[in-house]
Amino acid sequence: MQPSNTSGTLIGRMSSQPPLSPKAPLPSGPATTTAGLPSRVLLTGAGGFIATAVGRLLVEAGVDVTGVDVRSEEARQRANLSAGAWSKIINADVLDVDLRSLLRSVDAIVHLAGSPGVQSSWAGGFDHHVRNNVVTTQRLLEAALDAPVGRIVVASSSSVYGHVGQGSADERSPLAPLSPYGASKAAMEHVVGAYVERGLSVTPLRYFTVYGPHQRPDMAMHRMIEATRGGPVFRVRGDGEQLRNFTFVDDAARATVAALQSDLAPGLPVNVGGSGTASVNEVLALIEELAGAEVKRETSVEVPGDPGRTAANIDRARQILRWSPQVSLRDGLAAQIAWQAARARQNAHA
Question: Is the pTM of this model over 0.85?
């Protein structure tokens, strides 16, 4: 059976919606319910971009969250990350923690620690990606074998698919990563499969290009927005016609929490994507419209590992997680623009 194509163009379908003002509330999905939620969760990479949003949802639902993050509070603030939400924070590398002891006090794990980034994974950078994406996951799962842990949710990536030529990638599509980063996430999923065979209930979530408030400064949309504010010129790789499936960070967080609640078969991967695709050029035009300023940019050569197109089939997430993306690209970008402007004002008065 051919996967259904849920990858329509975001810009054409959503550009008629009015932009949000900086003070307007962001449209959001259904409130997180407590049904099926574990009472105590270990959240690794707790100060990270997606993890911050996940922690907030869990704490708001009354879950006791123990966070582990290698970055200090000062480093998290420098990286534009929020203070996070957790009941307890352990400032350490996951590999340096006594995991067996720690896991005796939790019911579930959301493992979002790891090394992101396609370009940083080439050459010697691959060592860090193997350590932080593969080895760390293996050590955590090994410790979980002896712990009373139920569901374990781990972060994978759309990069495992590589270039999606036609239609949209569903979870049965072949894994064909184009970068060492994507290969490290594919290897991590194979490690997950080995531990599922030993009895663990693990769910890999394949996130597609997550954006929104608190996005890391090195990520594309953050840099595009800063280029409208007098920041460094944004470098467009190639012709800018690369297509991406963009997922708002709060939508990604809701899917992550839903994976803790759902009756998923162990080892079953799930795509977490937005409601369609848009090109880099379309995103640049939309940011200019919303910000009311030009994105100062220049063109550079294409870089290795950069797929021409990504597109997510999210039927499995809709059917099993009862989840679907709620925030349009327009509204999500408006929220990120407003957040970056507010942060700049805050830093100016600091």
Answer: yes
